Amino acid sequence: MSKTNLTLKERYYKEVVPYFMKEKGVKNPMAVPRVVKIVVNMGLGEALKDKNIIEKMSEQLAFITGQKPQVAKSKKAISAFKLRIGLPIGLKVTLRGSRMYDFLDKIISIVIPRVRDFRGLSKKAFDGHGNYNIGLSEMTVFPEVKFESLDKVRGFQITVVTSAKKDDLALILLGRLGFPFEK
Predict the structure, then answer these.
(1) Within 10 A of 39 (CB to CB), how many other CB atoms are there?
(2) Is 17 left (phi over 0), alpha (psi -120 to 50) or beta?
(3) Who's near 119: CB < 8 A, 6+ residues apart?
(4) Which of 39, 115, 126, 178 is geometrically suited to a Cys-Cys bond with 159, CB 3.0 to 4.6 A?
(5) Alpha-carbon gap, residue 75 to 86, rounded angstroms
(6) What's the pLDDT tens digit per position in 26-47?
């Protein structure tokens, strides 16, 4: 769990909302920036050669996120990569509500501390619209993943979508939620 024995959702309502209302002058609690959803993407280009990769990684991603992933299919044909329109080339999971908060709590308290040579999350990974991207090079930092069941170490991208319109407000929001940003 979080540092203060509160769930992440409770922490948002008891600590983050009052902070924004008092310190940032937000008058309406509904106008306080919040985490809207989390999108987990995994590109699987090798699925063109091995059709079983999608099923194996779909199972692993379901263990990690607690939700069955959608198969992402190619939208363009690229002859150099032997890619045709409609071929499965990735997986995507969109988390909202309590699953989103549980996954975010797991990332902050369990996964990030397990990353080797971790010095803090970069403050430059915002996209200009208040969303934050985390790239993990290996999925073995998640406790659900059994290293023996993997044939190859793969990574994926986690996008935290917030309702903040500017990156600085999203930085404050995520920092207050417990994201360990670099100093």
Answers:
(1) 15
(2) alpha
(3) 182
(4) 39
(5) 6
(6) 889 898 999 999 999 988 767 6
